[in-house]
Design a protein that fits this description.
By secondary structure, the chain is mostly beta strands. The chain has helices spanning about 1-15, 25-40, 150-155, 345-350, 385-390, 445-455, 465-475; strands spanning about 40-45, 45-50, 55-65, 70-80, 90, 95-100, 110-120, 120-130, 130-150, 155-175, 180-200, 205-225, 240-250, 250-260, 260-270, 270-280, 285-300, 305-320, 330-345, 360-375, 395-410, 410-420, 435-445, 475-480, 480-490, 495, 500.
């Protein structure tokens, strides 16, 4: 929850609007201070002065703190100017300092001195007092670490540490009805990260650089009015809901280090990807994918050649219901893919110098959909005790295998299938609901793979008999080293493999 509150505060500091409505400078400033109060933080100022259509807030400071850290941002003077068309323009200093004081439970305190620098920034606000929309654009917005103090300075000397957003634009809005609703969307032409630091007591250095193109971020937050951000149990049952994510284009990272007579370097690139997250009283969702990944690492003292790998894509999709709902069973999903993972021939030669195995890329992918019936609303504090006391918090009603792929080294296993579950029959399968349905497999090249592993000496020939016999029991030949298998559970609770009863 602290991360949520801090992120919202930072977004609020960046924002203003182009929509036409009617707000005054004082109303905009009051809106800022009210938001900070909701999140348990606040402004301190040297004073407010309204002169004509301009409100000047002098010596503005923002403080945020928890048990181990405190942040102080000294913005200086903020000027809010009424434009005569119902909008307000905001001017903030082009540069201001931020101090981060860290007081860990164990260890000596440290301080990090940062600076915010921005150029070409335009902030405007429009809307209505109860529903303001902020609009922002900037040629650049950068945060840098200028110096360290305390324990951190004894360990590390910073030469360069800056993250910069180039060609930034976006909107941020706040409105109240029965909930406080916050929405923001930002587009960044390029994100650039540069880091270089050295050991204070030695000559070791670490350098890193990261570049991301076409970054787009969004979030929508609904929260109870006057929500306690420090509450032990987030108030999802009272309407708290969060969704957000990002997409990105071409990405590139690189690093090198030389510490304690050990040195290395590496780089990674990707074509793009996305992430989306949502969490509310009804359920949670976490979905992401990255495409076109290539990586290389060189650590000469450990391995005298580069370690190189590539991956066409990897992704995940997790969706979990957290409430009973009103329309019967709820949908759930778990899926991941690890597609076309490939390593360089140099790495292959370490394990297979005779080039016996096919050097095909490796793919592992699984997708499973399910229908479940929760017995509780798991995020409702009033039901927490009942959830803890329950042996079974819900029912499994159905499962569908939408994707199953294991492929590599010349072999492949694919599958699909579906089962329903009778929760009134807990005897046939010893306390588990009785399934009914089937799963189908296609198995290609596995015998050839086993032969090659025997040839490499990785599997003794006598030990290979067991997996071959298992394949013979559960699979049917349909071609040259091609097998199929159907595992079925019928309505009587019988388990069959290719029509032959096993149970």
């Amino acid at each position: 929850m602290k991360l949520l509150s801090h992120s919202t505060i930072i977004a609020a500091l960046l924002c203003g609007t182009t929509a036409h409505a009617d707000v005054t400078a004082q109303q905009v400033w009051d809106n800022w201070t009210e938001q900070m109060a909701v999140y348990g933080q606040g402004f301190t100022t040297g004073g407010e002065d309204m002169s004509g259509d301009t409100l000047t807030i002098s010596d503005v400071k923002i403080e945020m703190s928890d048990d181990e850290a405190a942040v102080l941002a000294e913005l200086g003077d903020i000027v809010l100017t009424e434009n005569g068309d119902g909008t307000v323009s905001i001017t903030v200093p082009d540069e201001y300092p931020i101090t981060l004081d860290i007081t860990p439970d164990n260890g000596d305190p440290s301080a990090v001195n940062l600076s915010v620098r921005q150029s070409g920034m335009v902030l405007t606000v429009a809307g209505e007092p109860e529903a303001m929309v902020y609009d922002i654009s900037a040629d650049s917005y950068a945060i840098s670490i200028d110096s360290l103090e305390g324990q951190a300075a004894k360990e590390v000397t910073i030469t360069d540490a800056v993250i910069a957003l180039i060609d930034l634009s976006g909107t941020y809005s706040v409105r109240d009805d029965n909930l406080t609703r916050i929405a923001y969307a930002f587009n960044v032409g390029a994100l650039d990260l540069d880091v270089k630091f050295s050991e204070t007591s030695g000559g070791g250095i670490v350098e890193g650089n990261g570049d991301i193109a076409d970054l787009a971020m969004f979030a929508n937050i609904a929260a109870p009015i006057d929500m306690d951000m420090n509450a032990d149990v987030p108030p999802f049952a009272d309407g708290l809901a969060i969704e957000g994510g990002y997409t990105f284009g071409a990405l590139a990272y690189s690093f090198n280090f030389d510490i304690d007579q050990d040195a290395g370097s590496g780089s990674a690139t990707a074509d793009g990807g996305e992430l989306a997250v949502s969490f509310d009283v009804d359920g949670a969702s976490y979905i992401g994918e990255t495409r076109g990944i290539e990586a290389s690492i060189l650590i000469p003292n450990e391995v005298p050649f580069p370690l190189e790998a590539s991956l066409a894509k990897y992704g995940f999709d997790f969706q979990i219901p957290l409430s009973q709902g009103e329309d019967g069973p709820r949908d759930a999903r778990i899926a991941f893919n690890f597609t076309d993972f490939a390593i360089s021939d140099t790495l292959w030669n370490l394990g297979d110098p005779a080039n016996i195995l096919p050097r095909d890329p490796v793919t592992i992918a699984l997708g499973v959909d399910a229908q479940v019936t929760p017995f509780f609303d798991f995020l409702d504090p009033e039901q927490q005790e009942a959830v803890m006391m329950s042996d079974v918090p819900g029912e499994l009603n159905g499962v569908q295998i939408t994707e199953l792929t294991v492929r590599g080294a010349g072999a492949e296993i694919t599958g699909d299938g579906a089962f329903t579950f009778d929760n009134t029959d807990l005897e046939t399968f010893d306390g588990l609901p009785r399934p009914e349905g089937q799963v189908n497999f296609a198995i290609n090249g596995v015998n050839g793979l086993v032969d090659k592993l025997i040839q490499m000496g990785l599997i003794p020939e006598d030990q290979a008999m067991m997996p071959r016999m298992a394949l013979g029991m559960f699979a049917t030949p349909v071609g040259d080293d091609m097998l199929t298998s159907t595992i079925e559970v019928n309505g009587e609770g019988h388990v069959l493999a290719n029509g032959q009863r096993l149970r």
